[in-house]
Design a protein that fits this description.
The chain folds into four domains: 258 residues, 2-enoyl-CoA Hydratase, Chain A, domain 1, CATH 3.90.226; 177 residues, NAD(P)-binding Rossmann-like Domain (Rossmann fold, 3-Layer(aba) Sandwich), CATH 3.40.50; 107 residues, N-(1-d-carboxylethyl)-l-norvaline Dehydrogenase, domain 2 (Orthogonal Bundle), CATH 1.10.1040; 107 residues, N-(1-d-carboxylethyl)-l-norvaline Dehydrogenase, domain 2, CATH 1.10.1040.10. Helix 8 runs antiparallel to helix 9, helix 20 packs across helix 21 and helix 23 packs across helix 26. 49% of the residues are buried. With 719 residues, it is α/β, with parallel strands linked by helices. It has 28 helices and 19 strands. The two termini are 47 Å apart. One of its GO terms (molecular function) is (3S)-3-hydroxyacyl-CoA dehydrogenase (NAD+) activity. It catalyses: a 4-saturated-(3S)-3-hydroxyacyl-CoA = a (3E)-enoyl-CoA + H2O; a (3Z)-enoyl-CoA = a 4-saturated (2E)-enoyl-CoA; (3E,5Z)-octadienoyl-CoA = (2E,5Z)-octadienoyl-CoA; a (3E)-enoyl-CoA = a 4-saturated (2E)-enoyl-CoA. Its EC number is 1.1.1.35, 4.2.1.17, 5.3.3.8. One of its GO terms (biological process) is fatty acid beta-oxidation.
Length: 719
């Protein structure tokens, strides 16, 4: 819908009305066309202002309409009508002008933005490109290099940067609509020839061909198989080398290749999945809309190792007062310096002052007595964490929330060492904690709905995407990682190499394959967990028991490397070798290949050819299968929770939607059939035995992913 009002005697104000973001739904497009017709035809109207209701200009095309038959007036002619009209049109940009919303503004003759507004063309994040003239008008307005960067990254710019780029004509701190009306009054009757962007020549970057070759190379490399960024470069190429009309035709052709693509569906699923996880629920019935969070103004972080430092920075950047505690004086000094550096760099990136004053440091726990919430981030050891929780229970206020950053230890066991177990939840951050968007909020059977709600809201305040998950070993992310890693080890035993496995996973879209990732995070991390689980037998022999644990297949390959001090990048060698300890560039290691051959010989294993398809099936389907078990156990409420965790925390390629969504693109019956195939070949590997929920979904005709939450609720009693 759109509203028309006449103000100051001669300015027609067209207001978009579609809360919460005034998306350009069919109804809104109808409204704009009708109100513009009215404004352009009524003689007393000399100029027009377009604005959005509720202090938001427009969030772009209505993404909810994409999967359906699109009706209503198309955007391109609607915007062309505004641009070619005889009366000046001013866009009053408050809050947001994104995607089709910015394209609408680019069709106007003038743009005024409020100083807090954000502008951008984020279509690439939805697997699309700006298809309402954005790829043709923006480069004509701000130049090809700047337009290319904004459109291929989809990043938002502040009003200040938009002014610097020439994207807007004015920025105001006051009432934007009033300022726009004032401008509209001042330009009424003036010629618009120089204000119609589509008539502008597109400035050519020097060495046009070279420029676009380089751009395409860089975009292909960072896209890792995503189609939309590549199409964006092609559309901008057309803008730089063809007349506007032909460029628009090219933009349409490219959009047609993207709009119905699997990648676009995956990325739009992921857009809504990130919003769905905020509507959390637990098997015990606690829910996001019935659990009232308690405000957290002052927090404490106990343990200032790598994670503790990142969490401290994220809290301070979110505006909280933080007490940062580290009992080792030397570590406290180093942490203080590191935190200051991180604050400074973060502040520079965001154009704000560093929040040094928000943090106070202490070498003992006493100063945490008055905080609202504590996040414990000490070394991953149950005994150490138990003593910290007991001390905190003595020192803290009775209603202080006690949270732990453990990446897999039993939350409820820790809660039993707290005075008020109901105030204990896990807040599992991902390294680097001040950068990674994901937060697993882990509730135990005794965690109160208010504790979960408070941690979820605090995560959002720290600009994280919080996902509520149940308590079990490894929670969701690390629990699914176990069968994924296990299969990778087994494939090495059967003849694969780390290079082959990693290449398959990286071509699938992961930033790093499983073995390069292990070298980065440190092989000793997994080794410690396997030791704690009683799986490691030092100096494993060559007999059959060496490759079996509790009756199931086990590969000691990772343990054997750790026993040789090969922890990965930090020691200069792991699955790959590096120039020096801490080196980042992985190189094939002849020693490792020799070691694998000897290992196979020692265990009577015959190497065979392993192809990329098998790598994907064994590693990804085992991970997905564990995802179904997690849904069956109620540890995650829905597939969106798992997919958001894997994309934001474990590098699953976003343009594949996440593990559970990906299973639907392959086809659940295909995933089931392949798991059965591999389980027949490896009956001693429970990770390959298809989960009952998967069988049930296939038996029910593989219902669409968005219906699984209800399906699981209904069938939980039978599972
Ligand atoms: C032709 C043209 O070239 C092409 C093809 C396009 O234009 S493609 C479209 C391009 N536009 C975008 O990519 C912008 C996407 N939106 C955002 O980035 C953010 O939403 C936001 C605008 C910065 C607000 O953030 P927020 O944190 O304040 O609230 P929220 O929770 O995110 O959103 C609040 C509610 O609004 C819903 N919503 C937001 N944007 C929407 C949109 N464009 N269409 C439909 N619904 C939308 C969202 O699902 C949520 O719903 P619910 O969960 O409550 O039911």
């Amino acid at each position: 819908m759109a509203l028309f009002t006449l103000v100051s005697g001669s300015v027609g104000v067209v207001t978009l009305q579609n809360p919460p973001v005034n998306a350009l739904s069919a109804a809104v497009r109808h409204g704009i066309v009708d109100m513009m017709d009215k404004a352009l035809s009524e003689p007393e109207v000399k100029s027009v202002v377009i604005c959005g209701q509720n202090g938001r200009f427009c969030g772009g095309a209505d993404i909810k309409e994409f999967g359906k038959n699109m009706t209503g007036p198309p955007l391109v002619p609607m915007i062309h009508r505004i641009e070619s009209g005889a009366k000046p049109v001013v866009a009053a940009i408050e809050g947001i002008a994104l995607g089709g919303g910015l394209e609408l503004a680019l069709g106007c003759h003038y743009r005024i933005a409020h100083s807090k507004a954000r502008l951008g063309l984020p279509e690439v994040h939805l697997g699309l490109l700006p298809a309402a003239g954005g790829t043709q008008r923006l480069p004509r307005l701000i130049g090809v290099p700047a337009a290319l960067e904004l459109i291929t990254t989809g990043r938002y710019v502040t009003a200040a940067e938009a002014l610097r780029l020439g994207m807007v004509d004015e920025v105001t701190d006051g009432n934007t609509v009033d300022a726009a009306v004032k401008l509209a009054l001042s330009v009424a009757g003036k010629s618009l020839d120089a204000r119609r962007i589509s008539n502008y020549p597109c400035p050519q970057p020097p060495g046009l061909d070279r420029f676009f070759e380089t751009a395409m190379q860089q975009v292909r490399q960072s896209a890792r198989g995503a189609m939309a960024p590549v199409a964006c470069v092609q559309a901008l190429r057309a803008a730089a080398s063809q007349p506007y009309g032909e460029g628009m035709q090219r933009e349409k052709e490219l959009m047609d290749t993207l709009f119905h693509s699997g990648q676009a569906r995956a990325l739009q699923y992921f857009f809504f999945a990130q919003r769905a996880v905020g509507r959390w629920s637990t098997p015990s019935g606690s829910r996001w809309d019935s659990s009232k969070p308690r405000p957290v103004h002052k927090a404490a972080v106990v343990g200032l190792g790598t994670m503790g430092r990142g969490i401290t920075v994220a809290l301070a950047q979110a505006g909280l007062s933080v007490v940062a505690v580290e009992t080792h004086e030397k570590q406290l000094m180093e942490a203080r310096q590191a935190v200051s550096g991180m604050l400074e760099r973060g502040a520079k990136r965001r154009g704000v002052a560093p929040a040094y004053g928000k943090i106070s440091y202490s070498s003992d726990l006493l100063p945490v007595a008055d905080v609202d919430l504590v996040i414990e981030a000490v070394f991953e050891d149950m005994e150490l964490k138990r003593s910290i929780f007991e001390q905190l229970s003595e020192i803290c206020k009775p209603d202080t929330f006690l949270c732990t950053n453990t990446s897999g230890l039993d939350i409820d066991r820790l809660a039993s060492h707290a005075r008020n177990p109901e105030l204990v939840v896990g807040m599992h951050f991902f390294a680097p904690a001040h950068v990674m968007k994901l937060l697993e909020v882990v509730y135990g059977p005794r965690s109160s709905p208010q504790a979960v709600a408070t941690a979820m809201l605090l995560g959002r305040k720290m600009d994280k995407v919080s996902v509520a998950v149940g308590n079990c070993p490894g929670f969701v992310g690390n629990r699914m990682l176990k069968p994924y890693l296990e299969q990778a080890f087994f494939l090495l035993e059967e003849g694969a190499t780390p290079e082959l496995v990693d290449q398959a996973l990286e071509e699938f879209g992961f930033a790093m394959g499983v073995f390069r990732m292990s070298d980065l995070s440190g092989l000793d991390v997994g080794w410690r967990v396997r030791k704690a689980d009683g799986l490691v037998v030092a100096g494993a022999s060559t007999g059959p028991s060496a490759r079996s644990r509790r009756g199931f297949r086990y590969s000691p390959l990772g343990d054997l490397l750790c026993e040789r001090g090969r922890f990965g990048q930090k020691t200069g060698s792991g699955w790959y070798r590096y120039d020096k300890p801490g080196g980042r560039v992985a190189k094939s290691d002849p020693w490792l290949h020799g070691f694998l051959e000897q290992y196979r010989a020692d265990h009577g294993l015959a190497a065979r050819r392993v192809d990329q398809q098998e790598v994907l099936e064994r590693c990804l389907y085992a991970l997905i299968n564990e995802g179904f078990r997690i849904l069956e156990d109620g540890i995650a409420a829905g597939p969106e929770d798992i997919d958001v965790i894997y994309v934001l925390g474990y590098g699953w390629p976003r343009h594949r939607g996440g593990p559970m969504f990906y299973a639907t693109t392959v086809g659940l019956s295909e995933v089931l059939e392949r798991l059965e195939h591999h389980h027949r070949a490896h009956p001693d590997v429970p990770g390959l035995q298809p989960c009952r929920l998967l069988r049930k979904l296939v038996a029910s005709g593989s219902p669409p992913v968005h219906s699984w939450r209800e399906f699981i609720k209904k069938s939980r009693s039978h599972l």
